[in-house]
Design brief:
The complex is a heterodimer.
Chain A: H1 6-39, H2 45-57, H3 60-71, H4 76-85, H5 93-117, H6 121-129, H7 134-145, H8 147-163, H9 166-172, H10 182-191, H11 196-226
Chain B: E1 3-10, E2 15-22, E3 25-30, H1 37-45, E4 52-56, E5 61-64, E6 69-70, H2 73-76, E7 78-81, H3 93-101, H4 113-119, H5 135-147, E8 153-157, H6 165-181, E9 185-190, H7 193-199, E10 202-207, E11 210-216
Parallel strand pairs in B: 3-9, 3-10, 7-8, 8-9
Antiparallel strand pairs in B: 1-2, 1-4, 4-5, 5-6, 10-11
Helix pairs in contact in B: 3-5, 5-6
Classes of the chains: A mainly alpha, B alpha/beta.
């Protein structure tokens, strides 16, 4: 039952790669949004918040369509990347990573924002009276105290990326070995009369990864919260 | 070293206008809760900006509204012991103590960690984390942490108010040793007559944001 064919392995490997890079790319972006939303006041903040959370509530096919319009070969961002950097992401695995990053961003930002909100700002005032400037205070106080949320957000975003389907298939289609991630492979298998057994194998695997990610996120959070000394 | 304070803060809830000097030793700010004592400390530390006035130590002007001077808190070298301790929960006692110490240029330091650890009896606590300490121990660490920045002035905001009577009695001798061994002005905010009587040489009485009187030689 649990012997994967080379094509299935490809899908698993690709999903892991897409998930990994989507998290790497979205970590700085997600933290910047989370910090801005937690700490800054500026006109249009509600709008920024809404845009970040949009992928959570929009039909994924709409998000994928939007990415296609922006980052497709004819889209403004897509043409810019192609002309300036020689990069094409439409119908490539990198496009799958972008779609996954966008879909995972709301989960990441929510987890990070909660933990930034939980940082006692009086501790930052204390650091300032002890001689620490804003940047040092951020690095030595704010960042380590919000670390549990950062890690949890990264893991949740990874799990989301690993299983993203709608936006990915809309944006980068279904190309085996390039953009056919695990859920897209399951979908393809279900289209064929003999695909039920391998689809089930892959489905069980994705359940294991998802549940593992959630348990992992919680364990890491607990462990960091307990840790004696950050350093 | 003397600190000169002459500041005003206008707020909808309370207008503060105080003027006093603090010499080496303990100057107490005494008054009821809500009289504006903590706001005065916050203005000296630079975490609250006065609407008017001037705050100056002998070697530096910390704030001068008319001259447009307002040093940021990290530049003031004003040690601040908060009412609620505010130890960094993710750092050991030792790393809390040396947090500000490391940021002070060696030439400006007048105390070193071993002296402070001995003075405040912190030797057995260094590896502990703040949440495993008693309230009194936490306040001793907070005092040590502020003192290790070799401050021009040391501000203490009701450091005993969150402690029960037994803990207060335990920490008082440390405060007396601090007063007798550290040669900087200390401003001690409290509404407890007994604490002030034991520690302070001068008492500035604050009533509804104003200095109502100054008594020399304690109560």
């Amino acid at each position: 039952m649990f012997e994967f064919s080379p094509a299935e392995w490809d899908a698993v490997r690709l999903s892991l790669k897409v998930g990994f890079w989507s998290v790497i790319v979205s970590l700085p972006v997600g933290f910047a949004f989370a910090y801005l939303l937690a700490r800054a006041t500026f006109p249009g903040k509600a709008l920024v918040n809404a845009v970040v959370h949009m992928p959570l509530v929009l039909p994924p096919v709409v998000t994928g369509f939007g990415l296609l319009l922006l980052f497709g070969t004819q889209g403004p961002a897509g043409r810019f990347l192609h002309d300036v950097f020689g990069i094409t992401i439409a119908f490539r695995w990198t496009g799958a990573a972008l779609a996954a990053a966008v879909m995972g961003l709301p989960l990441m930002v929510r987890a990070m924002r909660l933990s930034i909100d939980a940082v006692d700002r009086r501790l930052e005032t204390a650091a300032a009276t002890l001689g620490a400037g804003r940047w040092r205070t951020f690095v030595t106080i704010t960042l380590p105290l919000s670390l549990p949320g950062i890690v949890a957000g990264a893991i949740l975003s990874f799990a989301k990326s690993f299983g993203e389907f709608g936006a990915t298939i809309t944006f980068v289609s279904n190309i085996p070995g390039e953009t056919q991630t695990l859920p897209i492979a399951i979908y393809s298998l279900l289209q064929s009369p003999t695909g039920d057994a391998p689809a089930l194998r892959l489905a069980i695997l994705s359940v294991i990864v998802s549940v593992g990610a959630i348990l992992g996120a919680e364990a890491v959070e607990r462990r960091i919260a307990r840790r004696q000394d950050v350093r | 070293m003397t600190l000169t304070v002459d500041i005003a803060l206008r707020r909808s809830t309370l207008n503060i206008a105080v003027s006093f000097t603090a010499a080496v030793g303990v100057t107490a700010l005494f008054g009821a809760s809500g009289a504006g004592k903590t706001s005065v400390l916050n203005m000296i530390a630079g975490v609250l900006t006065p609407t008017e006035g001037r705050i100056a130590a002998e070697d530096a002007v910390l704030f001068d509204k008319s001259a447009g001077i307002s040093l940021a808190p990290p530049e003031r070298r004003v040690g601040y012991v908060f009412q609620d301790g505010r130890l960094f929960p993710h750092l050991s006692v030792m790393r809390n103590l040396t947090y500000g110490y490391r940021l002070v240029p060696a030439a400006k330091r007048y105390v070193e960690p071993p002296d402070v650890i001995a003075l405040l009896g912190l030797g057995s606590l260094l590896e502990r984390r703040p949440d495993t300490l008693s309230g009194g121990e936490q306040q001793r660490v907070a005092i040590g942490r502020a003192l290790l920045t070799s401050p021009r002035i040391l501000l203490l905001d009701e450091p005993l108010s969150s402690l029960d009577a037994g803990r207060k009695a335990e920490i008082m001798p440390y405060l007396e040793r601090l007063r007798d061994s550290v040669r900087v002005p200390m401003i001690y905010v409290s509404h407890e007559r007994a604490e002030i009587a034991r520690l302070a040489a001068r008492v500035v009485h604050i009533d509804a944001g104003q200095v109502s009187c100054v008594t020399e030689g304690g109560f």
